[in-house]
Amino acid sequence: MNINLTLIGQSIAFAIFVWFCVKYVWPPITAAMEARQKKIADGLSAADRASLDLELAQEKAAQQMQQAKEEAAVLIDQANKRAAQIVEASKDDARKEGEKLIEQARAEIQQERVQARDALRTEVALLAIAGAEKILETSVDAKAHSEMLDKLAAQL
Amino acid sequence: MADTPVEYIKHHLQNLTYGKLDAGYERFDGSVMSESGWTFARTAQEAADMGFMAIHVDTLGWSIAMGVLFLGLFRFVAKRVTTGVPGGLQNLVEVTVEFIENLVKDGFHARNPLIAPLALTIFVWILLMNVLKLIPVDYIPTIAHAMGLEYFKIVPTTDPNATFGMSIGVFLLIIFYSLKIKGVTGFAKELGMQPFNHWALIPVNLVLEILVLIVKPISLALRLFGNMYAGEVVFILIALLPLWAQWTLNVPWAIFHILVIPLQAFIFTMLTIVYLAAAHEDH
């Protein structure tokens, strides 16, 4: 309980300990702690950035997907239209071809009819002359009556 | 050792003193010092008669040992410190450092790189010195006695020399920073013009403020010393009880001291920060 030199010794020891702590203990430990804090903060912000990037990428991907879908729809639409056009055109062609054929057939039929009628007419004229000769018992001068015969043939 | 309870208590409260005895001093065994010289005190009377020219070897030895333990441990960690995932020891050290850092951040707003390490030193050193108290009161003195040392008190903070040694260090820092931050005139003004801001009351102010200033280290030292000393006395008293009764009191008292030990270290640290913060405040 006596106050003595211990007091001074203790003060000196205290001063030395504080000096040592200030110089060799405190700075490296706090520096490391600060460095770690910074590291953690950096890591957190990096994670934030990464999640933001991910979000952006997803958005972009969705956009591209949408665009592709739209393009595909346009293409399909065009193809459908084109197909319809082709079908329509071929239908048209077929109809025209058919009409042409029908026309040709009609023309041929007409021609044949005309020919047949002509042939018939000639024959009928001959038959009429022959009949008339039988009735008259004389030959008919074809030359003399050709005008009348032609009239007759034309009436048939 | 000691026979009666009073002697036992006195014995346990006596430091191992190495001091100077004058020529002609009559030793405990009747021999007379032929010339003045340094020696270990064999009785409390001899220790008292040595006066100021003596040192408490146990106090200094244990406090320096604890200081070296503290700095060695922290330096060991500081050298191996990693910014990655810290190990157990580094964690412990970092928790302590962070605790002190927060205390200083909350209580001390000026910029001074000395304050935080100072607070750390005070806190851990006092904590370690106080922890020695949990060693049963007879262990170390018995070993010391076997080695031929008459007295041995291992808890440095139960010696006012130790606590005053630290508080005087803090006091010098208070004076130093008061003068450095406020200047001689600023500091004088603070002492003379507060709390009554009138020239006629300067003497009253001076008396009050100087008293306030001087009370700071005394209260710091006496609070720590008083708590530790009283606790130690109670431990010694408990040790006087019959063996079967000791643990019923010793265990609760020791558990209570698990609270008191860090609390006293914390109070000393906190008040040091507060006093130094006040010294840095420029009005």
TrEMBL record, chain A:
Write out the transmembrane intervals. Answer: 6-26
One Pfam family linked to the record: ATP-synt_B
Q: Which branch of life, at top level? A: Bacteria
Q: How does it sit in the membrane?
A: Single-pass membrane protein
Keywords of the record: ATP synthesis, Cell membrane, CF(0), Coiled coil, Hydrogen ion transport, Ion transport, Membrane, Transmembrane, Transmembrane helix, Transport
Principal subcellular localization: membrane
Q: CDD domains recorded for this chain? A: ATP-synt_Fo_b
- Where does the record place it? Cell membrane; Endomembrane system
Q: Which InterPro entries does the record cross-reference, listed alphabetically? A: ATP_synth_B-like_membr_sf, ATP_synth_b/b'su_bac/chlpt, ATP_synth_F0_bsu_bac, ATP_synthase_B_chain
Q: What does UniProt give as the signal peptide span?
A: none
Q: Which residues form a coiled coil?
A: 47-122
Subunit info here reads: F-type ATPases have 2 components, F(1) - the catalytic core - and F(0) - the membrane proton channel. F(1) has five subunits: alpha(3), beta(3), gamma(1), delta(1), epsilon(1). F(0) has four main subunits: a(1), b(2) and c(10-14). The alpha and beta chains form an alternating ring which encloses part of the gamma chain. F(1) is attached to F(0) by a central stalk formed by the gamma and epsilon chains, while a peripheral stalk is formed by the delta and b chains. F-type ATPases have 2 components, F(1) - the catalytic core - and F(0) - the membrane proton channel. F(1) has five subunits: alpha(3), beta(3), gamma(1), delta(1), epsilon(1). F(0) has three main subunits: a(1), b(2) and c(10-14). The alpha and beta chains form an alternating ring which encloses part of the gamma chain. F(1) is attached to F(0) by a central stalk formed by the gamma and epsilon chains, while a peripheral stalk is formed by the delta and b chains.
The record ties this protein, via NCBIfam families, to: ATP_synt_b, PRK05759.1-2, PRK05759.1-4
The similarity annotation says: Belongs to the ATPase B chain family.
Primary role: Component of the F(0) channel, it forms part of the peripheral stalk, linking F(1) to F(0). The b'-subunit is a diverged and duplicated form of b found in plants and photosynthetic bacteria.
* Record protein name field: ATP synthase subunit b
Q: Which gene encodes it?
A: atpF
